Amino acid sequence: GVDVSALLKETGYVTYDPGFMNTANTASAITYIDGDAGILRYRGYPIDQLAEKSSFLEVSYLLIYGELPTQTELAAFTDEIRMHTLLHEDLRRFFDGFPRDAHPMPVLSSAVSALSTFYQDSLDPFDADQVQATTIRLLAKVPTIASYAYKKSIGQPFLYPDNSLGYVENFLRMTFGVPATQYDVDPVVAKVLDMLFVLHADHEQNCSTATVRMVGSSQANLFASVSAGVNALFGPLHGGANQAVLEMLNEIQADGGDVDGFVRRVKNKEQGVKLMGFGHRVYKNYDPRAAIVKKAAQDVLERMHKPDPLLDIAMKLEQVALADDFFVSRKLYPNVDFYTGLIYKAMGFPQKMFTVLFALGRLPGWIAQWREMMTEPNLKIGRPRQLYTGAPERPYVPADQR
Ligand code: ACO
Questions:
Q1: What are the angstrom distances between the C-alpha of 276 and each of 245, 261, 262, 314?
Q2: Is the CB of 265 under 6 A from ligand 1?
Q3: What own/partner pairs with CB < 8 Å and gap ≥ 24 does 150-155 have?
């Protein structure tokens, strides 16, 4: 009911673009997406090649520093991260204060925010050495924080990192291992999780990354900015969608597997009923990451001998949706979140951890984008304009006269 054109005239020349449907907030050399063609590249390298041949730490290096590392550079980067995986003992005690049933996402964002109280020597956003120290600390400590958030939720003791292990293996052991008990990381699980992290590592100006930039534009430090990004990722329309997909599949299964009935409810636009894991602001074609995840889900469930009727429901949903004009005309295809939850579930992660796994993967992208912004010669604080729709000027009315 708002007359936008009248408001625009009143405000003068501003761009009115709710949801930033058509507004670029930055120029960036990191990630390229062609949403119509379904193309995604990090620093020019196609996502399918990176998913198949690279590794998460190599991709992190690529995103953050702009080039693929030499073997020596990658070894040095990996070693440096390895040396910073421990949490300060005082930070470890933070976890005691959260309720047992706390969702691990706000636990993660709180602990990341708290890092800036422990590393006050590395908060200057314009000091290259300090930014580098913060970069390494984040990459090293976030997996430890994530697994502690999980251990807290199941009431098990925390495990210290084992730095003889690789990045993902270490995270898996801290998450699923139990003190004084041998825990052998399944190499298939570690490899697939590493690949999923690669697929999530950056996605240009999505909601959480744009948030990291917005917070950083006030010259807030990297820990504070990334903590804000974790909170933005938590929402069900963004990273929270991977948890929401599994909830949707469970609901359909509990309903006797009535896929057509569910799709009807989506098409009728029943309050709160969406086909979660479908649709994307930028992709108007199959999300290239979803294609890779779908194949991985089929392989992993087969190789782990964990057939899951929810995979059949998901595939049927996709088939029904892609043959239906409602979805076709709106260019709604599966996005990265549609099949990831099934893999995480097969690996033993509870639904509440799914979005945390997304955060672990997205971390290098947040860092790379924040660093890119901070080195811009003319950094401007992010500060949108508005169209005012409130009351005109009116005199104050004392309380006894209202
Ligand atoms: N199910 C049913 N209808 C949908 C869906 C969906 N998942 N997504 C979009 N639509 C419909 C909308 O109702 C709208 O229809 P209309 O034109 O009749 O009003 C049309 O498609 C356009 O959708 P918008 O919501 O305007 O598209 P927008 O770009 O704003 O939203 C978003 C993109 C948030 C991803 C949306 O598709 C969505 O909510 N999807 C489900 C949640 C999800 O999977 N999020 C993860 C995104 S990827 C990521 O963060 C990793």
A1: 5, 15, 11, 11
A2: no
A3: 150/104, 150/175, 150/350, 150/353, 150/356, 151/95, 151/175, 152/95, 152/98, 152/100, 152/102, 152/104, 152/107, 153/100, 153/101, 153/102, 153/104, 153/350, 153/352, 155/100
* Residue 200 Cβ contacting ligand 1 at under 6 Å: no
Q: Catalytic: 258?
A: no
- Give the closest residue (by CA) to ligand 1 atom 41: 276
Cα(100)–Cα(106) distance, integer angstroms? 13
The CA distance from 74 to 55, in Å, is: 11
Burial grade of 367 (CB within 10 A; 0-12, 13-18, 19 or more): buried
What is the sign, positive or negative, of the torsion defined by CA atoms of 170, 171, 174, 176? negative
* Closest CA to ligand 1's atom 32: 280
Cβ(290) to ligand 1 under 6 A? no
Distance 259 CA to ligand 1 centre (A): 19
220 lines ligand 1 (CB under 6 A): no
- pTM, rounded to two decimals: 0.94
d(CA 338, CA 282): 16
pLDDT digits (tens, 9 = 90+) for 295-309: 998 888 888 878 889
Protein residue with least CA distance to atom 21, ligand 1: 330
Nearest-CA neighbor of 16 among 394, 384, 293? 384
Question: Are the CB atoms for 343 and 293 separated by under 8 Å?
Answer: yes
Which has the closest alpha carbon to 243: 338, 145, 107? 338
Other CB atoms within a 10 A radius of the CB of residue 262 amount to: 21
Q: Is 276 in the pocket of ligand 1 (CB under 6 A)?
A: yes
Confidence of residue 1 (pLDDT cuts 50, 70, 90): low
Q: How far is the CA of 204 from the centre of ligand 1 (A)?
A: 18
In this prediction the ipTM stands at 0.95
Per-residue pLDDT of 17-44, as tens digits, reads 999 999 999 999 999 999 999 999 999 9
Atom of ligand 1 nearest to the CA of 203: 51
